[in-house]
Amino acid sequence: MAKQNDDKFNQIAAETRRAREQREQGYREQALKMYPHVCGRCARGFDRKNLHELTVHHRDHNHNSNPPDGSNWELLCMYCHDNEHQRQLEAQQGNTSSGRIKNTTATFNPFADLKSLIDKNK
Questions:
Q1: Residue range 55-83, pLDDT digits in tens
Q2: Cβ atoms of 66 and 72 closer than 8 Å
Q3: Which of 30, 106, 111, 99 has its CA nearest to residue 68?
């Protein structure tokens, strides 16, 4: 029974991976034809040798939103793309369920005892 479940899981995972790769190939190829091979953030240029480092970023973060005019895409180098997703993740973690940004206060004050130390050395 466990073997069957593992086989079924592996089959589903492989199909999902294949579908994602096909979908990505479609919009990536379209975006590479539409836009200059330049990162939209750092303006780094790409040629045939390093074109694999240029990625397609979905502006609305919905990988299924691929309008044919490319309005939801921007080309980013892999470093800027990672940075963009990290910024989005940090923004989400900074929000509470009410949609407000958490108000965090510092708990460590490196100068808390400074006055007493100065007074002691006088």
A1: 999 999 898 888 889 999 999 999 999 99
A2: yes
A3: 30
